[in-house]
Amino acid sequence: MNIRSVTLAYVVPPLLASVLGFIGLVQVSEAGLVGASSVVTAAAGADTASNQRVAKSLEQVAETEGATIVRVVADRAAPTTLRQALVTGAPSSLGAGWLSDGYGDFTRSMSTTVLPMSDLDHFDPVGSYAVFGDDAARRAVLDALSGLGYDVSSERVPFLRRIGVSDGFSGTSGLVGALTLGCVTLCLMGTLGAPRRSAVRRLHGQSTASIVVSELAEVRGTLLATVVGTPVVAFGLFLYNGLASAATFATAVVVIGTALLAPVIAAHTIGTVLACRQPLATALRGARPVGALVLVAQVARAPALLLLVTAVFDLSGAVATVRSGTAERDLRAAGETVQLWVTPDPRPIDSQQYWNRIGAFAGRALEQRDALLAATVEVSSGQGKSTVPALFVDAGYLGLQDVRTEDGSRITADDADISVWIPADSRLDRRRLVAALADWQLREAPAAAREQITGGRLARQQVYSYPDDSSTRSWLADAVIVVVPEPAEVFSADQLGSWLSTGDVVFKNRTVAERSINTSDVRREFSAVVAVGQVAAEQARLAATMTVIATATVVSTLIVSIMLGLLGTVAHRRRHGRALFAKLASGTSAVRADAGLLFVETALVSIAVVATVNSWWGARPDGTGRSSVLDPVAQSAGTAGALALLAIAVVSAVNGAVLAATARNTLRDRGNGAR
After folding, report:
1. What does the DSSP assignment read for 535-594?
2. Pairwise CA distance, residues 183 & 189, whole Å
3. Lowest mean per-residue pLDDT among 50-54, 413-417, 531-535, 537-541
């Protein structure tokens, strides 16, 4: 192992820091405007002032404190991609610049329209206000809103979260852990595992401190990667967003890069010091690695394999989310339907009366056929703890979606009876399933309706579920269909209110939804009218990002696992090569000669297999509600487990080949008289 391995360890941190900085700042940009120092949240009080007074008071605070105050409001038409930022315009403040030149979003997935705070008349003043200023500005905003009758609270935004460092590390711990572990091992093997370099310097009279300083000159690998990578990253950022928030991005990269360099420098320093403490004569001859280093090289493989298992499960889950539905097919199935965003905060979400009002609104919309029911529920199969997916639908759903029985006829809700339809080829016991539904999900229905449940078997088909997020599959081929002609007569207001808030009560189009909202007494409780699938599409977009991260994690962790196996084997051969040669030369079989390494390999593989089985056991749907049969991530648990076992097998097979190859090399070299 030569010193170039140490140089490689110094090249990885700046590259990884750029990736983590970008990921983190994208997440901060999507959540709000980049750089807010604090957030003040206003809840409706007993006697609140008008929107115009709120706007004027905030403008006065901004001018007095030299700060910028921002109220970000999602665009009702496209809340996941469009938003308005109501900003104060104090002279020479950030807000004044944004009002003049617009706000540059760091991420291209979000577009922000800047409006003056005076336009607060058109929006709900209840919510969060981002403050760009010092702590005095935060306190002034608190006092201003409190004086206007609002219940207020505030939160300081830590510097690391403000520039995206916290979000950059969130979700990427496997990638960071694997690469850091690899870099640390490279440093130890390039110093303690190859002490001759330090021994030559000691022979020339250099002290340990001067040798450490000379060794740390390898940080030029980081400087070289930075010098070469900076213009490349800057050009890419220019193409991506016109260098928006470039200074913040650079700061985040420096902070993350410094954090990633710390363990590399520490390992390099420790390895060099320990190498300098070896006897000079043996070090010059190329001393065998110390036993502790051989042990470290083998032990380091365990966390790498565990990280590999976790990364494979993360990748499988992200891919399953992305593949749960295609955009074109979902768009055709959804048509013009929309879902409502209920605004629970800061409303009295613990009040039963609140949810009854929301449920009554949903019930009226269903009765008037302005809305339809498409509620995906995990229900008991009637046998033990086993569960099955079910889709509760009404006449409105069946009018838009073509659902057919086993004989090919289309299912309708012309009959007033509740009907239950079992998937084709299902082994469910219909009698027990219907009894379980009647005892729980349909318990609010009239007794006569629960006793006259009809139905039959479905044709082989997939039905659209009108998903509200990525935790529910868009298309269901294995779901029980429960037709409830009049949901308002069967389900409680509380249940209908819950389903409305989760997007399971779907309006036929935007015009109908807006009319229903404007003529109701709960119109302030809805923050957005969202095209069906929009939230799921946003979640799928995030899952696509996580797929890229998880793929990079799997690839890097696989490489690190193989590399650590190679380093561990090489270190073991350098320390115990003579004993291995003696055993092989005396006729001992290769398996018995390498019994120690084979035992370690078996133990590590066993640990990884146990971790895989444990991850599969925890992720699979088990009827307890912890992992739903409707969740594509849970459905992919079996595939993830199989892929994890395959990855472990690949690592083990490569290391087995390395064992055989190094054993042959040791026998040949020792037989030729090499030390």
Report:
1. HHHHHHHHHHHHHHHHHHHHHHHHHHHHHHHHHHHHHHHHHHHHHHHHHHHTT--HHHHT
2. 10
3. 537-541
Which H or E element spans position 380? strand 371-380
Q: What's the CA gap between 512 and 370, in Å, rounded? A: 6
Cα separation, 523 vs 503, whole angstroms: 16
CB 71 within 8 A of CB 120: yes
- Residue 95: predicted pLDDT: 94
Query: What's the CA gap between 270 and 292, in Å, rounded?
Result: 13
Provide mean pLDDT across the span 269-277. Answer: 90
Q: Give residues with Cβ within 8 angstroms of 474, minimum separation 6.
A: 324, 325, 330, 464, 465, 467, 533, 536
The helix or strand, by DSSP H or E, that contains position 70, with its residue range, turns out to be strand 68-74
Domain limits, the chain: 1-31+163-287, 36-156, 294-325+534-675, 336-531
Q: How far apart (Å, rounded) are the C-alpha atoms in residues 42 and 532?
A: 30
Report residue 349's pLDDT band, with 50, 70 and 90 as the boundaries.
low
Q: Which of 627, 344, 384 is nearest to 502 (CA)?
A: 344
Return the percent helix, strand and coil in the chain, to nearest 5: 60, 15, 30
What pLDDT score was predicted for residue 328? 63
Q: 492-506, pLDDT tens digit by residue?
A: 999 999 999 889 999
The type of residue at 171 is G
How many Å apart are CA 278 and CA 284, to the nearest integer? 10
Task: Report how far residue 431's alpha carbon sits from residue 85's, in angstroms, rounded to the nearest whole number.
Answer: 56
Q: What is the CATH number of domain 36-156?
A: 3.30.1240
What is the 3-state secondary structure of 490-537? HCCHHHHHHHHHCCCEEECCHHHHHHHHHCCCCHHHEEEEEECCHHHH
**Residues whose CB is less than 8 angstroms from the CB of residue 377 and which lie 6 or more positions away in sequence, other chains included:** 389, 390, 391, 392, 441, 630
Helix (H, G, I), strand (E, B) or coil at 188: helix
Structure tokens at 128: 């969060």
pTM for the full predicted model? 0.74
Q: pLDDT grade, residue 345 (50/70/90)?
A: very low
User: Mean pLDDT for the chain?
Assistant: 86
Q: Which DSSP symbol is given to 460?
A: S
Strand partners, 505: 373
Instruction: State both tokens at 159.
Output: 């510097």
Residue 330 CA neighbour count, 13 Å, CB half? 25
